Amino acid sequence: MEISTIKKMESEAIKGSSIDFRRLGFALLFMVAVLIYNYINSEGIPNNIFLAIAALFGAYMAMNIGANDVANNVGPAVGSKALTMGGAIVIAAVFEAAGALIAGGDVVKTIKKGIIDIAAFGGNTDSFIWAMMAALLAAALWLNFATMVKAPVSTTHSIVGGVMGAGIAAAGFSIVSWGTMAKIALSWVISPILGGIIAAIFLFAIKRTIVYKKNKIEAAIKWVPIFVSLMSWAFITYLTLKGLKTLWPTIVNIFTFLPNTNEPTFLTASLMGLVVAIIVYIVVKKRIKKRTNNIENSRDGVNILFTVPLIFSAALLSFAHGANDVANAIGPLAAISDAVMTGGISSQTGIPLWVMAVGAIGIAIGLALYGPKLIKTVGSEITELDQMRAFSIAMAASVTVIIASQLGLPVSSTHIAIGGIFGVGFLREYLDKTSFLDEIEDDKRRLIEKKNTLKAHARELKKIEKIENKKKKNYQRIATLYSLLEEESSAVKEAKKQLKTHKKVQYVKRDAIKKIVAAWIITVPAAALLSAAIYFMIRGIVI
């Protein structure tokens, strides 16, 4: 039996190591292909070796974004079983790449959000290139480590830390815009709190309007189309504001009735979202009436109605994420490309198509190879999710970004999604504890009664045992009391256990909270220290 078990373990270990080896081989193949392609196509250009190596780092960074950050878009849908792991990876990979290539070619501020003052480089192009290379590699290494320990962290914060650390190493602390860094630190608090509150509000609204109703089917026919149309409004508004900036001039030229602006305004985006929401409401209303004929009047039955909206939300979130966060992978790479090609340093630069392709393809490959680990963490290892809860988290992701962008608050999409998961988990804890209040009071009363009975029996036993001339019936009573004492002791233990069970309702895993929050807090300083070390290493090798 033991030999058979050992052989089975060996077989599983060999199989697992073989899969890991193939994943690593495929990832390395992509990175080497990017390196060779770039080196050949930039032959004859001064410093082209730096550009080729930077492209390699950019590919590595893009894969790590796919492995870590994309999990936030599809994790809840997978955790609620609205999507299979394979389906989620295909949808996310396609829409991430599409978002990056179609809507991600906006002019990128390569020094992300004014983190450092490029004038401090004093026109030293080489030093600038080394700093951007260090930032890319440091951010990628940190994301790789976070993925290994199953901690979803912010890609934006990783690259921010990388740029800051390399900038300080190259030109000193005065190069950093500390006001911008303060805003980023503020986002650590704002993002998860806003995401958690909004997700909890939507889940509570679904419970009050549908789940708590006696006739859940009738309530679902009325309210599910409203919730889905609200989601449509939020996503179209979010997608227009965040994902269509690059395409907006072209869209305005085609649809001449739209305001002729450089990028979509909130009013335009929200009106477009409203039009789509009305259409979605009409369509969903008709389909819901047909579907409810075949489902049972229960929470599980109603849950099924949120499956299709969740699949759409995963796709739209992935598209918007690809359109925006691809800059985290290739923003510094675009800066290096511009510096190598022009021989100077620019605060803004357009992103060449090959750079966009590295980011888009790298994100898709990273997701396919290493994404499942973080998808499982986000989807099932923080709190248990079903379709309603996952729907509420998706709503929180889009609504929070819209609110924050209009208020000028810095937020992280990763922190919002994880905050939304915490929000629905803590709401469940609160509601269940509230529903157990009567049981808790009954448990307390029962425990007090059992303890009083136990004390009474103990006093009687003590009194009888003090009597010197014990009669036969006293011996019988002593035996009875010992038996009662044993029974009551067991009853007291059971009452304590029941009370503790009702008091300790925890649906959010505390260990997961500690690990994730710790990773959030140290992301910027860890990436900064790593980036500074890499900068000095590159500088030492070159000089």
Question: What does this molecule look like?
Answer:
The protein has 543 residues and is mainly alpha-helical. It has 18 helices and 2 strands. It has helices at 2-41, 48-68, 71-79, 85-103, 125-148, 155-171, 178-211, 216-243, 248-254, 266-291, 299-303, 307-342, 353-380, 387-407, 413-435, 437-466, 472-503, 510-542, and strands at 108-109, 348-349. A two-stranded antiparallel ribbon has the order 1-2. The model has no long low-confidence stretch (mean pLDDT 80).
- Tell me what portion of residues adopts beta-strand conformation: under 5%
Main sheet makeup: 2 strands, antiparallel
* Rg, Cα atoms, Å: 30 Å
Percentage of residues assigned to helices: over 70%
Structurally, the number of domains stands at 2
N-to-C SSE series? HHHHEHHHHHHHHEHHHHHH
Give a quick summary of the entry.
By secondary structure, the chain is mainly α.
What key phrases describe this protein's structure?
1% strand; 18 helices; 543 residues; 2 domains; mainly alpha
